[in-house]
Amino acid sequence: MKHLIAAVLAALFTLASAVGTAGEYGKQKVVYHINMDDPAIHNAAMRNIQNHINAVGAENLDLRIVMHGDGVSLLQNANSDMNVQSKVVSLKSQNIRFHVCANTLRGRGIDKDNDLFNVTEADIVPSGVAELSHLQQQGFTYIKP
Asked: What is the homologous superfamily of the domain 27-143 according to CATH?
């Protein structure tokens, strides 16, 4: 009987710890900065972002991904890579917002409708670096994967 009670208490403690994990971090505002053309970094960043969501809880997280320069290649590569497409769709379905630099698009002749995966006009920001600064001024924590 003592073993049963101990096992039940251990199970309850484990469950309570798991349930409490998402809430222990509180509300967070975070901006991830992507400016490199490296699929390994893109995949690591999206994995880190999903882990961040899992730890904090989507309901406790206002997370933005700012892409400029070579980082825009993440969404270019997604056009032909189903794995990247599924990650982008999954993150967007969890209310993660992608911000794409208009300066980069204009300077490199990139068409958001034909060259980028799942980008709307609402995803475009005038300047990626200005957006990073603006979000940090609003209290967003900066993360560079």
From this structure: DsrEFH-like (3.40.1260.10)
